[in-house]
Amino acid sequence: MSAIYLLKELLKASEKAANIARVCRQNERLLNLLVQEKDKDESNSRFDHDFKTLADCLIQEMIKYEIGKQFPQLRDNIRGEENASFTNTAGESIIVSVTDDPANTRDILEKILKGDKESASALVDEVYRNIEIDLEKLELPTELIPLDNDLTELGIWIDPIDGTAEYIKGEEKYTKYPNIVSSGLKCCTVLIGVYEKCQGTPIIGVINQPFAEKISDQEVYQGEYKGKIFWGLSIGDLKYNNISPHETDARVALLSPSEQPKYIEFIRNQLKYDVIYSSGAGYKILKVATGEAELFLLSKGTTYKWDTCAPQAILRSMNGDLFNLQDTLINKAVKKISYQDHKVTRNLGGLIAYQNIDKLREFLKL
Fold first, then answer.
1. pLDDT at 365
2. How far apart are CA 297 and CA 63, in angstroms?
3. Where does the chain cross the membrane (predicted)?
4. Is 161 marked as a binding-site residue?
5. Is 249 marked within a binding site?
6. In the structure, what pLDDT confidence band is assigned to residue 36 with cuts at 50, 70 and 90?
7. Does 341 carry a binding-site annotation?
8. Max CA-CA distance within the chain?
9. Which of the four pLDDT bands, split at 50, 70 and 90, describes residue 49?
10. Which residues share a beta bridge with 225?
């Protein structure tokens, strides 16, 4: 089967996901209805309070439905961040699901939304909307690129909204670099990554940034934002993407605001990087792929496979990669992040991302 055909369907699903994210975010009352705190066993240890939204659950189940419908052999190998169970204000636990029957999906959403038929119908319209994307604008290859694997040998990791806390707060904070924000809706991304199960290698990545650009008040669009879609494909020696790298003289390192001081000091004082703090693992790795940052480092094991699969595939399409930080620093073995065992979901050794592997070598010398 053609890898481009699979990529096209992933791109369509990501744009449908972005539409749902914008519809949910544009109505403050609806957003408040949609937010609930995660259970302890599914929350991220970084946060005192970790939240999920109905948008997260609905997007994840929609992507599973869309891709599973097009590629039945993949259906059992599609995994995501969120537990599909959502509890409404009456304390009733409801499983969010998307099926061939829009009426069934509408009934589920109405229960969650306390009988709000208008909001449920608006969400269902987006879930079943026929999405057309501009393939020429997205710069997809025209040649046939066969998959090296049977579909049953592939897996997919989904992060329906990477940066849920930013999605809920929506407060935009900028850095001194105009194309890098420290927090806010621009940090939110929809991540869909395809990997080879046998080798654990990510081969196709799609990152959709639903809130990439705020549009003028005169235009009517989903939530007054336009999105951007980035993709990368790396199969064997074939590497394609739609990213035009930025040229910058600045040496920028992107870190989490909670990073350990010893790493901050080393990166700033020994490596002479300009340290910038930003939210969202997917967003930070994307900025390394675009060349707007040279390095992303995270010393703690607080990211998961759904955070990294898609952006790593894009990095690999640009001859970069994502590495286990602790193995690389302590064991002196440059170990790439792998997806062989889908039961091991956390990236326990931390992360280091470079687009330019020569820069990684310089880092290791120091």
1. 84
2. 29
3. none
4. yes
5. no
6. low
7. no
8. 61
9. very low
10. 214
Question: In angstroms, rounded to a whole number, what is the distance separating the alpha carbons of residues 207 and 311?
Answer: 7
Predicted pLDDT at 47: 35
Rounded mean pLDDT of 280-290?
A: 97
Tokens representing 69 are 């419908």
C-alpha 51/C-alpha 165 separation (Å) is 7
Q: Evaluate whether 329 touches 286 at the Cβ level (below 8 Å).
A: no
286 Cβ partners below 8 Å, 6+ apart?
189, 207, 209, 230, 311, 314
CA-CA distance, 201 to 195, in Å (whole number)? 5
SS3 label, residue 128: coil
Give the predicted TM-score (pTM) of the model.
0.92
Burial-class residue 100 by CB neighbours within 10 Å (0-12, 13-18, 19+): exposed
298 CB-contact burial (10 Å; exposed 0-12 / middle 13-18 / buried 19+): buried
Tell me whether residue 307 is annotated as binding.
Answer: yes
Would you say 39 is a known binding-site residue?
no
Tokens of 319: 């001859």
Contact between 206 and 7 (Cβ < 8 Å): yes
Q: List the catalytic residues.
A: 56, 81, 159, 161-162, 164, 307
Q: Which residues of 114-128 are buried (b: 16+ CB within 10 A; e: fewer)?
A: eebeebbebbbebbb
| Core vs surface per residue 8-39: b (16+ CB within 10 A) or e | bbbbbbbbbbbbbbbbbbeeeebbebbbbebe
Mean pLDDT for the chain overall: 89
